[in-house]
Amino acid sequence: MTHATRMRGFSLLEVMVALVIIAIGMLGIAKMQGLALSSTTASRARALAAIEASSLAAAMQANRTYWASTSAPSSIIITTAPNTSCTPSNVCASYTATPGALQTAITTAGSISNFCPSTGMNLSCYCALTFSAPCTPAAHALGLAGSDIYDFGSGLASFLPNSTTNITCLAADTPVDCTISITWTENTVAMTSQQATQSFNNGSTVSVNFTLYVVP
Hints:
Oligomer: single chain
Number of domains: 1
Helix content: 40-55%
């Protein structure tokens, strides 16, 4: 007896179901890529904030003549702007410091006459251009502190715009201790519909804070 072999292909319905399954899978992959990119950007911002804060902490410890004395500032607020093109005429960070002597030192350090154009950033050449003798903490503690604060704000503006930094020191403590607190916002990526609703209500951003405690 001979059995006829029947050829059978895919129906249109089966093809459509397969396409729907593939499309759902691709959407999931796209969402995962978006989340990975967002996480990478957030990690970069947090790493840069930690590096900038650690750099300022090292500068404080190198200039203990100022930071570890009763002259230590009670409050410094640094706000960076969205624009990252920082030049002497377009400073991307604003500074408010107490006492007034430090505010003057920061302003002097960031003046056009003390600007370092060869660095490619809005950094201060205060020590190099103001003093013929070596600029040391023992001889120029206040000016050096102002230059360090100015450079910290300029660097933060280039790497982390739209941020606010609060630096407070308790000169009455023994030893003097300071706190560097950097706050900025990050964009969020929702993985579920509930998170998407919450992100929409919150403007799709989240506030992030990095705090470093320093004993100069």
